[in-house]
# Entry
Amino acid sequence: MSQITTHVLDTTRGRPAAGVPVTLEMLSVDGPIVLGSGATDREGRLTDILVDELELEAGRYRLRFDSGTYFREQGTRTFYPEVVVIFEVRDPGERYHIPLLLSPYGYTTYRGT
# Structure
């Protein structure tokens, strides 16, 4: 399991959001650096977005959720075709879990455990 993980729940359907494409980037002065990508599993989880060989550094990171693709595959229109969550890593030794509660017309996120 990578140090950065996520879990997407479709609050409209009341179940995990499987197949949501997600990209992880580190934000640097030279621009974003892609560290990994993948899609949520049938439980809505993505636990291996950051390869084990990479060590986190203190700094800002961005998770990009392709909610447009997910909702299109569900046959649902959405107002938010992409959700971007920017967060700060202060202690590279910690684990960072960023859940996303998603619906076609709203979303929320928080730091999980």
Helices lie at 67-73. The chain has a mean pLDDT of 95.
